[in-house]
Inverse folding.
């Protein structure tokens, strides 16, 4: 056997061994770095695992996103959404206005209402609980609301501990939480991109508390700013470790950094390529197997065509219809605020996959 054939044989054998290890629930940093240096092997393993877990099915949810306030005491460098309380375009929706938006969504067959907002300086637990109670008293919908940072903010404003805040919100109607505010789980990077936001350990503590109280959450990662590939891997490994303990993450969502109209975007000169998107989504599938089945591609961040492409690199879900999306749009996302169900299904079919509608907890409808 000549040297070239021998090298190919060794590489093929190592890839097969890595695939078997991953299938068995094992992952090694050396193997991950080896796959990154051989992206075709990484992409192949991710697609094999996706097919093993999900077949040809690609899911989506009919939902509405409601950003109830843009007033925020934070100073995240990547945010184009936040406003000071005295800004001309600052707003806080009245609960009646929120109910109108929920009613519109229910009329369009939405099963999920996703609620997030800025860290308003004057809002305490009473506002959030009333919002949830009034929605639940009028509509049969799943409420997916409030990031871990919002939970921490509510606890501070209300003089309550985090667990009591979560218990009260759950009693008022909270069904699940978005795992946003994770950004990148590295405190040296967070000190640059979101200096006033919670530390890594605080995010993990609140997520684990929610899971212990039987409040499922998603998990996210913001990539494409000042982080390195090692930081991405470390972040996803942290998510894997939590999931091994709690089994309450419903999905993992890589979120590409949007450069428009924010301070961090002036520093970050590079544009993330589709190749880099593919590496991130493939790594998520490989690292999180078999603990998290669902890898979501965000059509808002990636564009619909970009999200469709990720279906070949480990993703099996295209998120929701949204009906209203402000945070990414203000940071430069060009994909609009709403994708009707028929458009999502056509997008999935164009990739040769089978669309299936789901609810928030990934039960097929």
């Amino acid at each position: 056997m000549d040297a070239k054939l021998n090298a190919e044989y060794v590489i093929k054998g190592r890839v097969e061994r890595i695939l078997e290890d991953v299938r068995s629930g094992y992952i090694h940093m050396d193997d991950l770095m080896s796959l990154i240096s051989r992206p075709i092997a990484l992409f192949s393993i991710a697609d094999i695992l996706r097919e093993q877990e999900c077949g040809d099915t690609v899911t989506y949810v009919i939902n509405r996103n409601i950003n109830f306030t843009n007033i925020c005491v934070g100073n995240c460098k990547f945010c184009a959404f936040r406003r000071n309380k005295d800004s001309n375009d600052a707003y806080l929706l009245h609960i009646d206005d929120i109910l109108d938006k929920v009613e519109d969504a229910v009329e369009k067959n939405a099963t999920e209402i996703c609620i997030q907002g800025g860290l308003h300086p004057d809002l305490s637990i009473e506002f959030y609980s009333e919002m949830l109670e009034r929605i639940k008293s009028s509509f049969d919908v799943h409420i997916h609301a409030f990031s871990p940072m919002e939970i921490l903010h509510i606890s501070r404003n209300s003089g309550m501990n985090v667990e009591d805040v979560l218990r009260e919100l759950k009693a008022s109607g909270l069904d699940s939480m978005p795992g946003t505010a994770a950004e990148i789980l590295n405190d040296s990077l967070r000190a640059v991109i979101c200096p006033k936001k919670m530390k890594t350990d605080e995010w993990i503590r609140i997520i684990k508390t929610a899971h212990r109280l039987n409040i499922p959450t998603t998990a996210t990662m913001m990539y494409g700013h000042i982080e390195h590939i090692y930081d991405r891997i470390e972040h996803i490994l942290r998510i894997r470790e939590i999931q091994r303990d709690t089994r309450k993450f419903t999905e993992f969502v890589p979120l590409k950094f949007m450069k428009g109209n924010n301070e961090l975007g002036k520093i970050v000169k590079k544009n993330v390529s589709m190749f880099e998107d593919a590496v991130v989504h493939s790594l998520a599938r490989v690292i999180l197997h078999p603990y998290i089945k669902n890898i979501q591609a965000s059509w808002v961040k990636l564009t619909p065509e970009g999200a469709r492409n990720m279906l070949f690199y480990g993703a099996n879900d295209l998120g929701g219809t949204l009906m209203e999306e402000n945070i990414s749009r203000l940071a430069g996302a060009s994909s609009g605020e709403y994708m009707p169900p028929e458009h999502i299904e056509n997008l999935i079919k164009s990739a040769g996959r089978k669309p299936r509608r789901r609810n928030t907890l990934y039960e097929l409808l």
Remarks:
- The two ends are 54 Å apart (CA to CA).
